[in-house]
Design brief:
single chain; binds heme C; two-stranded antiparallel ribbon; elongated; mainly alpha; 2 strands
Length: about 140
């Protein structure tokens, strides 16, 4: 009986340790991402992610931002120039590719966006970006 309790306790400590070890990472990524955002995205998508009506779509609660990671990473790497409907509004404008940004910078900026402007979605890692970048250059 004692042994089981000890095991459960140890597992609890392990899980809590793991969570608190990952949180500072997430916070640091979001902080770095905000700087990337202010440099490369703010001009079009605005500081609160609200965008510019009919010109630049918002980044709050859109299917791109909170949805599939691969699709979201592809927008930043390859840009976007097709007609899209975002939150009920049609956009037919051009976003240039941002493939000059490092994997870490793209991971940080998207993690920032996915945890700002009312969004709550899982972080993006440099490995995620690396994979998408590799799949895009193969074509
Ligand atoms: C020159 C202006 C401009 C810059 C700079 C820019 N975007 Fe965009 N972005 C756009 C436009 C315009 C679209 C929509 C393109 C279309 O109509 O097909 C778009 C679309 C998007 C979308 C998909 C649609 C949505 O609203 O969910 C995401 C996500 C996005 N941009 C993120 C970013 C991020 C992150 C950065 C910075 C690394 C960035 N953009 C920089 C103009 C810009």
């Amino acid at each position: 009986m004692m042994k089981i309790k000890m095991t459960v306790l140890l597992i609890c400590f392990f899980v809590i340790g793991l969570i608190s070890w990952q949180q500072p990472d997430l916070k640091a990524s979001i902080e770095r991402g905000q700087k990337v955002y202010e440099t490369y995205c703010l001009g079009c998508h605005q500081s609160d992610g609200s965008g510019v009506p009919r010109l630049n779509p918002p980044l709050s609660k859109t299917t791109y931002v909170t949805g599939d990671k691969k699709k979201l990473i592809t927008v930043v790497l390859a840009g976007l120039d097709t007609e899209i409907e975002i939150n009920g509004e049609v956009y037919n404008n051009v976003m240039a590719p941002h493939d000059f940004l490092k994997d870490q910078e793209i991971a940080d900026v998207l993690t920032y966006v996915r945890n700002s402007f009312g969004n709550k979605a899982a972080a993006i890692t440099p490995a995620d970006v690396k994979n998408v970048r590799a799949s895009l250059t193969k074509k």
